[in-house]
Design goal:
two-stranded parallel sheet, 5 strands
């Protein structure tokens, strides 16, 4: 068949380039339209690079722009994401909740108020997660197709297990010093990471940190109660059961469609 006999869509169309897309990271990039956040897709590995103004190297944008393997990601506009909320509200069957959501998106701060209202309604919150993810997926697939990129499954990476090392003797003083240095290093890393996270990711980290803090308090109280300390001040009933029963936030509850995501909106 000659080129004249082929459909116009087949004539001169460049071949699609297969890219192992990291969908969750790409979805975050399309959703986060903060002006100081810039996201880039590596068209070979499928990984997403996020650059935050004021934190990253000022020359980072220039270096990325000169690298042909990176492609700038244009996030979904706030106006379009606002339309998603408008389209979702009529789908809510609970009339009082529907009225609350309608009032929440009126005026400045609509995204935050919309999220705050849904926080108390797990079922509708999950429906919103699914609804929003479906719209993001449409935008992502259209963007990939317009740039000649075909998403493919990412291959699982495996490595040879390292050989176990023989344990070395260490004194209690050395152990305490190491723990202190390690804690300070981890706090520093946590602060640096927090600067790069969006509101949704920060909510997930905060919720887990609160759970760890409560569990630690429960263990300390249980230890003191068993040793007989503080009984006169705390009374006969101990709150350790209440603290110990606090469960960590379920990833299925706090994330849409097993994507393991926390809920956040601008």
């Amino acid at each position: 068949m000659s080129d004249l006999d082929k459909p116009s869509s087949e004539v001169g169309s460049p071949p699609m380039r297969e890219v192992p897309i990291e969908w969750e990271a790409l979805e975050d990039a399309f959703e986060n339209n903060a002006p100081e956040v810039h996201s880039y897709l590596h068209v070979v590995t499928g990984e997403v690079l996020r650059v935050v103004d004021g934190i990253a190297d000022p020359d980072m944008h220039a270096r990325i722009a000169s690298d042909a393997t990176y492609m700038r990601i244009e996030p979904v506009s706030s106006r379009e994401q606002y339309r998603w909320m408008e389209r979702f509200i009529p789908m809510v069957e609970d009339v009082p909740l529907r009225d609350q959501l309608t009032s929440a998106i009126d005026g400045k701060g609509a995204f935050r108020r919309f999220k705050d209202v849904l926080m108390s309604f797990n079922a509708e919150r999950e429906k919103w997660f699914t609804f929003r993810s479906e719209r993001l997926r449409v935008f992502m697939e259209a963007w990939l197709n317009s740039h000649g990129l075909k998403p493919v499954a990412r291959s699982a990476w495996t490595s040879e297990a390292p050989r176990p090392r023989e344990p070395q003797a260490i004194s209690q003083e050395q152990l305490s010093a190491r723990r202190s240095r390690s804690a300070e290093l981890l706090r520093k890393q946590l602060r640096e990471l927090a600067e790069t996270l969006g509101a949704r990711d920060l909510e997930k980290v905060t919720a887990f940190a609160e759970f760890v803090k409560a569990r630690r308090a429960a263990r300390v109280f249980a230890h003191r109660h068993e040793s007989g300390e503080g009984d006169g001040d705390l009374g006969a009933e101990a709150p350790s059961d209440a603290l110990a029963s606090k469960e960590p936030p379920s990833e299925e509850e706090s994330t849409p469609s097993s994507r393991k995501r926390a809920f956040a909106l601008k």
